[in-house]
Amino acid sequence: MIRINVDKRLAHFSLSVNAEFDKGITALYGRSGSGKTTLLRILAGLEQPENGSIYVDEDCWLDGSLTVPTHQRALGYVFQQPTLFPHLTVLENIMFSHTHGKRQCANVDALIDILALSPLLNRRTTHLSGGEKQRVAIARALASKPRVLLMDEPLASLDGHAKKHIIPFLQRLCSEIAIPVLYVSHDPHEVAQLADNVLLIDEGRVIEHGPVAHIVHHNNFTQATFASPFSVCEGLVVQHDEEDRLSLVRADIGDIWVKQVNATIGSAIRLYIRADDVSLVKMLPAHSSILNILSAQVVKLTPQNSDTLVVLRVGGTELLANITKRSVKRLNLCSNDCVYAQIKGIAVHVFN
Ligand SMILES: Nc1ncnc2c1ncn2[C@@H]1O[C@H](COP(=O)(O)OP(=O)(O)OP(=O)(O)O)[C@@H](O)[C@H]1O
């Protein structure tokens, strides 16, 4: 557990953060210049706050005049551009912190295995792809067995294909290392896929902090980076329909049919549902191509520029729908109305 309470003034910017981060991935999310990197740098001891404290469990990294220098903080730092030693092989890069640091070394074999680095170990890092370099940088950051992992847009320099490839490694790794991971990202899709919690930051102040499914529903989240609104739902795979190539997910919003997923029955799964892919009807349709029709209640209507964002209560949780103003008028939609939310199975993104 990290407990941080710091104030920092820069020339035209001030940051004031009081937060706690438990194990798992916390996405630091906010518009450009909101203070995400500054917060990581303070945690790493690369910036000195005017006052405040940082504790990792019971260990003090900063309090008043006491400042533990960066090299004595048990942390790993992964940057947007992997900074590897070009004169060393992949294995030598990974082992660098082991041979040069004083901390106990992690199980390097397990890291190499999880990050699928075995075929690369004897290669020079100059000849690796961007995604391979970043996997080496992550292994190196973890080889010193840090108690905190800081990742500053680690996938930003990768293309969509490389990102897709590396994200499952990251997910597996972060669930195995069981330490707090602070992960800066501008990409709402990445946040939805990876984060357990989100700290939303604006102008150096914490705007929201909590579980990802809750925070992504906040207007502040979409306004922070002009992301299209979406919902994140947790569920379990309960059935595969081989003939129709579909899978049934028992999610917190109800049972949802999605395109067949490569996951065993009982696997935990996360659904990403764009608000634009949710439509509303007041009566159950007699014949519909839409596979998922859920009973819902309107909680709130928020007119946007040309659309209206509708917060729905579905099961014990919330779901967002984005519909046109004309649709709101046509349905004469008001708060507390009972409706049916329709979600195309084909439109649901599945993260497993
Ligand atoms: N060394 C510095 N001196 C003065 N101002 C700085 C310094 N470093 C950063 N800033 C300012 O502090 C603010 C926060 O910067 P920071 O890099 O933390 O933002 P960020 O949220 O990480 O942005 P981005 O998403 O664009 O990387 C910005 O206004 C930036 O110009």
From TrEMBL:
<keyword id="KW-0547">Nucleotide-binding</keyword>
<dbReference type="InterPro" id="IPR003593">
    <property type="entry name" value="AAA+_ATPase"/>
</dbReference>
<feature type="domain" description="Mop">
    <location>
        <begin position="287"/>
        <end position="352"/>
    </location>
</feature>
<dbReference type="InterPro" id="IPR027417">
    <property type="entry name" value="P-loop_NTPase"/>
</dbReference>
<dbReference type="Pfam" id="PF03459">
    <property type="entry name" value="TOBE"/>
</dbReference>
<keyword id="KW-0472">Membrane</keyword>
<dbReference type="InterPro" id="IPR004606">
    <property type="entry name" value="Mop_domain"/>
</dbReference>
<protein>
    <submittedName>
        <fullName>Molybdenum ABC transporter ATP-binding protein</fullName>
    </submittedName>
</protein>
<keyword id="KW-0500">Molybdenum</keyword>
<keyword id="KW-0067">ATP-binding</keyword>
<keyword id="KW-0997">Cell inner membrane</keyword>
<keyword id="KW-0813">Transport</keyword>
<dbReference type="InterPro" id="IPR008995">
    <property type="entry name" value="Mo/tungstate-bd_C_term_dom"/>
</dbReference>
<feature type="domain" description="ABC transporter">
    <location>
        <begin position="1"/>
        <end position="228"/>
    </location>
</feature>
<dbReference type="InterPro" id="IPR003439">
    <property type="entry name" value="ABC_transporter-like_ATP-bd"/>
</dbReference>
<keyword id="KW-1003">Cell membrane</keyword>
<dbReference type="Pfam" id="PF00005">
    <property type="entry name" value="ABC_tran"/>
</dbReference>
<dbReference type="InterPro" id="IPR017871">
    <property type="entry name" value="ABC_transporter-like_CS"/>
</dbReference>
<keyword id="KW-1278">Translocase</keyword>
<dbReference type="GO" id="GO:0005524">
    <property type="term" value="F:ATP binding"/>
</dbReference>
<dbReference type="InterPro" id="IPR011868">
    <property type="entry name" value="ModC_ABC_ATP-bd"/>
</dbReference>
<dbReference type="InterPro" id="IPR005116">
    <property type="entry name" value="Transp-assoc_OB_typ1"/>
</dbReference>
<dbReference type="InterPro" id="IPR050334">
    <property type="entry name" value="Molybdenum_import_ModC"/>
</dbReference>
